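A further point concerns the way the authors explain their paired sequence and structure data. Showing the layout once, in full, would remove most of the difficulty. For illustration, here is how one protein appears when written out as sequence plus structure tokens:
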Amino acid sequence: MMNNLNECEEGDGGPNSQGDATSKESSPFINSSTSDVEKSQQYDGKNMALFEEEMDTSPMVSSLLSSLANYSNLTQGSKEHEEAENNEEARKKAVQAPRMGTIMGVYLPCLQNILGVILFLRMTWLVGVGGVLGTFTIVFMCCSTTMLTAISMSAIATNGVVPAGGSYYMISRSLGPEFGGAVGICFFLGTTFAGAMYILGCIEILLIYIVPSAAIFKMEGLEGAEAEAALLNNMRVYGTIVLTFMAIVVFVGVKYVNKLALVFLACVILSILAIYAGVIKTALDPPDFPVCVLGNRTLVSKAYDICAKTIERGNGTITTKLWRSFCDSEFLNATCDEYFVNNNISQIQGIPGITSGILAENLFSSYMEKNSVLEKRGLQSAQDPELPLTSSNRYVLADITSFFTLLVGIYFPSVTGIMAGSNRSGDLQDAQKSIPVGTILAITTTSIIYMSSVILFGACVDGVVLRDKFGEGVSGNLVIGTLAWPSPWVIVFGSFFSTCGAGLQSLTGAPRLLQAIARDGIIPFLRVFGHGKANGEPTWALLLTACICESGILIASLDAVAPILSMFFLMCYMFVNLACALQTLLRTPNWRPRFKFYHWALSLLGMSLCLTLMFLCSWYYAIVAMGIAGCIYKYIEFCGAEKEWGDGIRGISLSAARFALMRLEEGPPHTKNWRPQILVLTTLDGEQNVEQPRLLSLTSQLKAGKGLTIVGACIEGTYLNNQPKTQKADQSLRKLMEVEKVKGFSQVVISSNLRDATSHLIQAGGLGGLRHNTVLVSFPKNWKQAEEHHRCRNFIEVVRETTAGHMALLVPKNISAYPSNGERFTEGHIDVWWIVHDGGMLMLLPFLLRQHKVWRKCKMRIFTVAQMDDNSIQMKKDLMTFLYHLRLDAEVEVVEMLDNDISAYTYEKTLMMEQRSQILKEMHLTKNEREREIQSITDVSRGSIRRKNPSNLHPQRSIAEESVAGSGEEKPEEEVQLIQGKNATPTPTSPTSPTAPAPATMSPGEEVQMTWTDDTEKANNPAVANPDNIKDMFNMKPEWENLNQSNVRRMHHAQKLNEVIVKKSQEAKLVLLNMPGPPRNRTNQTRHMENSFYQNYPFFADIQVMIFIGFGCLLAFFRRYGFGGMVFNFLVATFTIQWAILIQGFFQFFYDGKIHLSVLNLINAEFACAVVLISFGAVLGKTSPVQLLIMALLEIPLFGVTEWAVLKYLRINDAGGSILIHIFACYFGLGVTFVLYRPSLNEGHPKVSTSYQSDLLSVMGTLFLWVFWPSFNSALTFKGDDQHRAVLHTFIGLSASTITAFALSSMLSKNGKISMADVQNVTLAGGVTVGASVDMMISPAAAYVLGVMGCFACMLGYKYLSPVLAQKLRIQDQCGIHNLHGLTGLISSLAGICAILLATEETYGPSLYQTFSHQAPPEGDPQLVELQQLIPDLEAGLGRSAKEQALFQVAALFGTIAVSAVGGMLTGVVLKLPFLASPSDEQCFDDELFFTVPPDYDCVNVLSETSKAENE
């Protein structure tokens, strides 16, 4: 190794250097200046030389673990700011700050943020207005929401390290930068408005409860709106002052705020303890806290000194201050307010105590309108409801209109603050443990406090006091303070400091949140707020926070600000729940929270509660908040920096895409939804740039961003050597797609040759159901030049492959002349030459193009071609009607192409085409010599195609000529023949160029393809001027009259159509036409054996013989019923086949409103016919022809329904029809004969006898059936091995039953002779018994055994069972169909079930899933993909096990027996109708009743009677 390194030290790699071309400067781990020798010394002795080449890109785990373990969870850029802050103390010994635990780091901060201003200033009012039940419901909903959110947040916070940034980082890293930025801004606004709310609460406590005299705008003597305006102005002025002071404090140093945090928290805890102490005191010693009430109206405490109208002092009555408030003087005869006069003054206890029972009175809500008087429940008052309210400033009035949703919006801010712990994750010892425990514990604690406060306030305080928001009726005291012990001032000062601390915390946290968002760079216009002081303090963010907070202070109402911040917090919490639910449902590999007590259902419930509370608080605020978030989302999406954080929204996109693709796999798109999904095949130059950029312009004009577009390119070579080219080409494609505004995907394929690469693109483009159905490829450029022959050859292969793939092919010619997206056509036409119906593609293309601004002003013209026998006028009317139904506006013209005499040019071109093939065959040239000869002959033939304008003479060859010209590769003879044959058309595909030269769109000065040969060219080319030269040279040139007339006709029509198009569409901007596709195979010869007719017709012919000859002869065994047996068989079979074609066609072959016919339909119909003929055997000789036809008429639909149900739903294996044919036919026939029972026939019938001739005829029928039975059993089996096995097993089974039948017949006969009845029937039993398992691997021995078993069953059935059925069960089975078809069918069904259970993949191999197709893996199973690699045509199955398939076989067996038997009996009831000409008992089995018999028929009667006498 050292020697090799030394050899390569020269330069940057030496002549023998190996490896990639990656520069060492990009390596983050190894110094790029280290030489190879130093590098080898670096790893020497470290046992890592094996991986030394990977060290530049993949560091060793040993060096990586330390950095992973010491992961820094500071926010982006925070570490640098922290270092700058500590620069002054760099010389001092670094002391790491102690890490906090769960209590100090999470629990207490959450407690401080949750317990705040609403508890002290509004909770009592909420209880009074909403009632204990209503308020408790609100508290429970809000606490449940925060608890569910905390569970979701705990899961997210414990899924890795959470940086300082809290909820913003959680959401943005879980839902992506768009959602993260939108919700982050909302959370920032919520925190900012929370600061405004805390400051307003602080000012409210200061001006109303601590220093009322400090008000700048005096409220004394003011009423109504004036007093309200004065209060709001005071709030604005003092709020601005306090905000400025707090902002300065935060700007100077956050450390002072942090140091005071414990003090503020202590104030909160002491205040709450004082409340609980006060509640306990009310149970022992309720305080004396009177409230003065006039009638039932609560009076303002400022309006009186004594709660009485008058007082007795000495011997006189003196009026009080209250009297003077309602009267115009202090005298007793003064004029007073009517309500004051009519009602008495009473005094109630404001805090009756917890044992007073006041809870019942406060249970229910008491909502009030604005400026309505606060009234005491239960007290009577005398008042006139029509009189207006006077002296309103003497009563306690409602300052706002209250309702349930308002209470929700006001209360919810009191439960916010649950993110305080997660925001401090960087300061925690174990954040993944502390955050869940501390947050959930804090929420539990605060929820208990809030819920208990609701109940305790309702149980201790009177309703009028609770509803008194500002304590006007209780001497201006804070209502909750009146309950506190030992003094109300504990609550007043505690709440004051609590609100101050909460405001400072909000002004501290909001700027840092904004700074974190700004530093992420996802919102460009906020980047300025990412900067700050040298120590990282967010100066600019603090300024913006203060400005926004000032807007909240200018609102000046705590009740108005609370719903606003509720919106923003609820939106943040909603997305936290959404993030957790998404991560859980998507099951992303990185989602592994340590906190295990979460569930996606809880997260979705929490998200639903958040959304519900948003609209409960204020529907218009909710819409505004969502609008703000939506605008930010779209701004980030369009203008923000691209971030890839592995978020859940991308996971949703992947899941949604997978779901959509799976839905697309369910079936082909409906015609209404069809649109061209285009694969654009481009070519690249040496710099990997697209050679035809206008292809993408045309694509953009066609697609307009809708549907699927794949832009593909091919590179020749190997992937390992050309991977950089692939990346460059892909970037080039993407850049061009962006310029041309093509929305789609790019794909670059590398292969050893361009033809294969193009084929790979066409085959593998797209994914699942989202695949291209249209290929757009440019017409080959410079295809006439020999060095470009490969382009033409590749083009022809594209035509073939798209045709084979049933795709549309669009070929624009001279694509460089097409308009760009910036051009506009102000007028012009798009001509459509609709020659053959292509499913509507030609109609759709101009419609799509005219949607684009380039083609919008072009009009559409449609030309269609009429032949000699067509009515041109009617064609035009029909076409206009068709366009009207298609809702297309176009001009219509019908062009008549007369069948003129074929021109000499046509014969000449066709002659030269065939001549080349003939010459090459006769010369016996090698392949290379053929290629050279083709080139020379092609050069000679160029003179036959010329331009119309001699001044611009440019020769133009056909595609056929170009495809073989100059070919240096070996080409098989059949390919050469193909190109010279059918596909030698000038323009094989469409559309053509609107402005460029093309065979179908020309102007006078452009290149056209005409139909004469230039004389000059003839002179220069003797082979053209005098074709006899070639004949003389080779003595084999065919004359014109011996040409292939098909080729002549094609050439003639191409020439005539070209002339018409040039004439009609000279001025068109674009011409679209459809041209014939390529030959069906590469040799242009029909392969007969690949046609289903040639595969299925031999089986059809064999079964025909069985039906009409085999069954007919077999049923002619009666001496006097030979005509009936054969002729009625002929009649019924013919009728049945036609009827079965309709019935089976409706159930199995009905598509697009039509029954599709093929030889396969006829085979299935003959199987149905066999069912009827077998049933016919049970009633042979006992029914009229009308009865037989009606039986067939009724049996076929029942059989068709049964067959359809069994094959579609039960999906059984029954290749030989043992269940569906033999058993159904048997028990249907037995059901019919059971109903048609004739008692007299049990004693025997004189005409039930045979003759020598009738037995011979019947045996002939048996022989026909025996010989062709293998075809019957194998006709519908899987082609190949399965069909081979079916033929072998059937033959072996028939042979076994035949040998056994002869043996048993002689053994069971009394005289040891062979019975002809046994030969006629029992010998066929083996064909039935192997039927169900005929295509399975049951082995020849098993087939032989089944034949023997069938023979035994059939023979014994004839001998012993048939008489029992006739005498005991009233079943007169005339031909013994129960023995030959019923018993043997049951044996066959059981054998098939056993074969299914015993079948294994070890025995069958992969072909198991072809034989038992329903056991094949279902669609989407990976095993199916593996099997399809071994058997490409294997289709997806149902994934059944062998036991499941066996159960379905059993179900089909018993179901068929039941349906057929019941159907047969019902049919028998119909056949018993008297008008169906049923023969009498005496006339049964006699041809004379229905036929004109010959003269010698009486001889048969005489012979019959003689035979009977001899037998007696």
